[in-house]
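Hello again, I could really use a second opinion on something today. I owe you a coffee for this, so here goes:
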Amino acid sequence: MATVDDERALFERYRALCEKVDAFAARVHARYGGELSCRPGCDGCCKVRLTITEIEAAAIAALLAALAPRERERIRARAQTAPEGRCAALDEQGRCAIYEARPLVCRSHGLAIRTRDPRGLPVVQACALNFVERGPAVVEPSFVLDQQTLSTVLFALDAALARLRSRAASARVDLASSLRGDGAEPSRRVTTNS
């Protein structure tokens, strides 16, 4: 039988993954800062309606629970009125209101990312605002994030959470629904320190 300690350990592994991606992004910014447009208030990559995993939704729920009630309600109200095609977590200044618990896709946005084309061949892509002069293909391989590896680890953690909660692995959760509080709520409150 799964315990709160089992769930807490799983969230620690998720937090460690987030920290690893953040450290990788910091290395990229230190090396390629002059070619990156990413900065507070830049929301070029946030013109999407995001879906997230249950483990990411639980981390966001824990962050929301730790906020002052007024701030939590402000975020929920914005999520109610977020226009289609814009991330529901953005505040009026284009900044992320849940930055400390932002999903992994947000932590890696803007970086050079290796994906696979339909034939399985590697493709390196980045935000169109970054690496404009030379393109992301010139980024040294050790500064390119492998999307398949990141997704595999995230989905493994998400599946482990579903098993701990005796549920089938869930479909992705709409971020706006999660912020409004009508998305996937964690069955137990777990402090994620994120």
Notes: The first strand starts at residue 51 and ends at 52. The helical segments are 4-32, 54-66, 69-81, 104-108, 147-164, 175-180. The beta strands are 51-52, 113-116, 122-125, 145-146, 173-174.
